[in-house]
């Protein structure tokens, strides 16, 4: 599921916690035009690779400059559960849309058994921004999460208890020692392959615990450098197309940062779909994985 932007621009309410954003030299109108074009390009590239893409248009009011990143406000699960999340920035809370959930059920044939709304944690200043804050190993029910101003233990524990997930929480920082705002910019976990910028985990015990967990769940691990993380190589997502083949979706910047040996390892497990979304990345500090809210709901 993807949301085509209508008021996209670098969000001033998220800039302090997201050091990846605010690098565009375009004005807000130019940022919106560029993002809409890049959105159309990456969604078409996914469809050409056989991935079903369900598009929704962002609502023009109230303004939601980050609506292009729906994975932060909602996740969809194979048991029919939909989870809504507490968002740090007030202007992101309007991204939560019941009409999107209703359309997935009514128009697209997905079964919604239950909606779990965790947004009440916002009242206590506790946030958990979906599969940005958490990287979910859905097979083994493990939630990997780096703690940050957008990811708090109380909300994380609430998710884990309700959804029967084990939590592996850790600290993660960039090269300047600033907290990394979302876990999904430094790692991704697929069915058999994981990528992670392990050097972003400053505590040896936590780094060892995460790598041990990935090994224990029989994942082959590709370790990324800080430079590759900064190019959004950690912000990829494993998908399946209509033939059941695995694909890794990422931006062209992310793909271009990978070494040949890393690409060869990826291609043992999945094909690659990449597309340039330079303006989205520079303006908003998110990449392809952030744009995709994967729908695991059952049909019917």
Topology:
Layout: E1 2-4, H1 28-48, E2 55-57, E3 74-76, E4 81-84, H2 98-106, E5 114-117, H3 130-133, E6 134-137, E7 142-146, H4 153-163, E8 166-170, E9 187-189, E10 193-196, H5 204-216, E11 220-223, H6 226-230, E12 237-240, E13 246-251, H7 252-257, H8 260-269, E14 271-275, H9 278-284
Parallel strand pairs: 1-2, 4-5, 7-8, 10-11, 13-14
Antiparallel strand pairs: 3-4, 6-7, 9-10, 12-13
Helix pairs in contact: 1-9
Structure description:
With 300 residues, this protein is α/β, with parallel strands linked by helices. It has one domain (2-291): L-arginine/glycine Amidinotransferase, Chain A. It is 29% helix and 19% strand. It is built from nine helices and 14 strands. The chain has helices at residues 28-48, 98-106, 130-133, 153-163, 204-216, 226-230, 252-257, 260-269, 278-284, and strands at 2-4, 55-57, 74-76, 81-84, 114-117, 134-137, 142-146, 166-170, 187-189, 193-196, 220-223, 237-240, 246-251, 271-275. The strands form five sheets. The chain has a three-stranded mixed β-sheet with strand order 3-4-5, with no helix packed on it. A three-stranded mixed β-sheet has the order 6-7-8, with helices on both faces. Strands 9-10-11 form a three-stranded mixed β-sheet, sandwiched between helices. It is globular, with a radius of gyration of 18 Å. The model has no long low-confidence stretch (mean pLDDT 95).
């Amino acid at each position: 599921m993807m949301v085509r932007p209508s008021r996209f621009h670098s969000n001033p309410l998220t800039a302090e916690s997201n050091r990846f954003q605010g690098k565009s030299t375009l004005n807000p109108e130019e940022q919106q035009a560029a993002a809409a074009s890049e959105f159309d390009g990456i969604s078409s590239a996914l469809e050409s690779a056989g991935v079903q893409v369900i598009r929704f248009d962002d609502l023009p009011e109230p303004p939601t400059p980050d609506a292009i990143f729906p994975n932060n406000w909602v996740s969809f699960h194979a048991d029919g559960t939909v989870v809504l999340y507490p968002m740090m920035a007030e202007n992101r809370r309007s991204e939560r849309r019941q009409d999107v959930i209703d359309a997935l059920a009514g128009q697209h044939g997905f079964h919604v058994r239950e909606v779990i709304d965790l947004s009440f944690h916002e009242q206590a200043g506790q946030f958990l921004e979906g599969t940005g804050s958490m990287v979910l190993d859905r097979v083994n029910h493990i939630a990997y999460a780096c703690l940050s101003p957008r990811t708090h233990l109380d909300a994380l524990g609430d998710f884990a208890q309700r959804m029967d997930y084990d939590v592996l929480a850790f600290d993660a920082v960039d090269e300047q020692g600033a907290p990394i705002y979302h876990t999904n910019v430094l790692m991704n976990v697929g069915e058999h392959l994981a990528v992670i910028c392990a050097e972003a985990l400053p505590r040896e015990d936590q780094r060892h615990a995460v790598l041990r967990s990935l090994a224990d769940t029989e994942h082959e691990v590709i370790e990324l450098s800080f430079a590759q993380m900064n190019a959004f190589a950690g912000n990829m997502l494993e998908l399946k197309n209509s033939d059941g083949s695995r694909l890794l979706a990422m931006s062209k910047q992310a793909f271009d940062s990978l070494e040949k040996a890393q690409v060869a390892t990826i291609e043992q497990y999945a094909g690659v779909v990449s597309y340039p979304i330079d303006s989205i990345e520079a303006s908003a500090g998110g990449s392809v994985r952030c744009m995709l809210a994967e729908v695991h709901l059952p049909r019917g």
